[in-house]
Model the fold of this input.
Amino acid sequence: MPAITFDADTRTWLLTTPSTSYALRLEASNVLRHVHWGARLTLEQVVSLDGRPQPTERGFETVFEGSEELAVDGGLRYGVPSLQVRFADGVRAVEWEYLDHQIVVRPDGETLTIRMADRHYPLRIFLHYRVFTDSDVLDRWTTLAHEAGGSGDAAGSGPITLLRTDSATWALPRREDYRLRHAIGQWGAETQLVGGGVQVGETVFTSRRGVTSHHANPWVMVDAGDAGEEHGEVWGTALAWSGTWRVTVQRTAAGLVSVTSGFGHDGISWRLAEGESLDTPVCSGLYAADGFGGASRRWHDYVRNHVLPHGDEDRPIIYNSWEATGFDVNESNQKQLAALAASVGVELFVMDDGWFGARSSDHAGLGDWTVNTDRFPGDLEPLIEEVHRLGMRFGLWVEPEMVNPDSDLYRAHPDWVLHFPNRQRSEKRNQLVLNLARDDVADWAQDWLNRLVSKHEIDFIKWDMNRPFSEAGWPEHAQDQDLLWRRYVDNLYSIIDRLRADHPNLRIESCSGGGGRIDLGILARTDQVWTSDNTDALDRLRIQDGFSQIYPAAVMAAWVTDSPNYLTGREIPLRYRFHVAMAGVMAIGGNLTEWSAADLAEAAEHVAAYKQVRHTVQHGTQYRLRGPKDDGLTAVQYNSPDDAEVAVFAWVQSAHFGHAPAAVRLLGLRPEARYRDEDTGAVHHGAVLLQHGLPLDLPDGDYASSLTRLTEIH
Ligand code: DGJ
Done:
């Protein structure tokens, strides 16, 4: 059955995914009305909805709000506009009419494009829908083109100002009630899961910082007030963009809920000159009938199969030098760390900040990307050769978008940073933001990155970005300075894309002071993200829980660091720290030169154990058995792609006498199968694990943790 079908009589489109349907209809009034987003319906069933009573205009009420496919600003519409334009003569309303539609069949699915045009002005609006044969996630985006097309064609009338250009409006079906779930945070406390009722009015999440931000992540989930981790209907949207953005959840007084999502923050505008067009980023949407866990699992599959460049690869076990040596990196201390890292089984050694220019602190040198030969007298080769000799790959930290005012680069090019005339240049971490929107700056970054990776045998880069924008001006582009908010990200993406194309074996980690740049846009061109600068294992459980709502463990870098933790001062046993990191892309970031022989031996055991479960964790199915709500038990299960291998992580912060946690009931097992515990040899019946849970082997005392590895017996 084709994924996209069309009923010409009622002008209804039906998009079909493996277990969901999405339908929309073009009404006689040229309104593109949302019809259905939920469980599978046939085209005939969807068309039958046409007879249903529609809201009627009464009093001050209008019929559009909360039910359109793209809520334009115009006519009797008073809700959140997804598309808001101002034509050269000052007219602001959009009046659109249908032109035609096109369905394109791809090897992995189908794409529908509905073409609309303004009735008078030369603005064309294309709504795109991409469905996949193997995913319930559907992608939407919008193209705006300044070209003739409307029946009252008024071409040549000057640039069109785009005041709001969202990728999509997502109208939800009518339910009794709604709840919202999303992730907020701050530096060191990213992806904190929060939720609550959807109030009548508008709930806005946004970034005005130039990056995706630590403070909100551009996804939301909405349920009908009754979903749980493993049951109930959940709708979600996620935006693929790494600059500023806005997501607005609107609930009308009449009870309709819709979500509009797009790039750019309020207050900026873009111009569309004649002949120009703009593609918004993709905003993806998902309906899942099996709760938040079911929704997350579908997002994870979608990210691995349709977003990541190498979603099928196992991510290596990394050692990163940052928490061990800070800015004080040199050939000798890095070789020492590399030897210890290799001895415990690390596969990729990453030297962090401090290897270039006058970068001995965060006060100077950023922008001067030449190796510091006081620290590395023979250039980087002796270290890289040693790392390779030890059997590891080599990675390097870079921060291409930034400059310290105390640098040769800034002294030579003070005009290269974001700035306005007559305004101060606010520093943060003693640095300014290079205006990557400028092609000369982007070319410069492309050039030195390419030379760096070509000259040395670099297998991996950690691409960092350590401050938000401020005074975001582009004086050389005075007529249209807001363009930088978009062009900056376009150039960032194209630098990374070209670097990857020129160096196909290079792998990249996205970092922005921890988790400031985590989104589906950056994941389409990187391999993993640095989740947070907070490496405290207890705090990480909450960060990882929020992260896992949309993003898979395969991209969630997690270091085991020293105790007490540098940020929280908390002391946590090594075993617990390892078990937390093993639930993602495990890495080590502690100062191994200060670890005891017993610590190193224990580390080697955990690294070996991780190698056993890595494929299951990174590519399998995740079940959040118990979230990190209190100081009691948190548990996460991963099943291998064929469900034959199972890894269960359990962590207890504090045990309270007389209040033992209830057994952890596993999910996703075959009741009739039996499972062997790979460490103890114990054999469990699948049905018993499902009904009565897994007996946990937790040590006494606070910060107890366990990893149980089960294999199905045939
Ligand atoms: C911020 C990153 O999140 C850290 O891991 C480290 O790379 C520092 N920057 C280096 O300056």
User: Anything to note?
Assistant: Residues 337 and 593 are 7 Å apart (CA to CA).
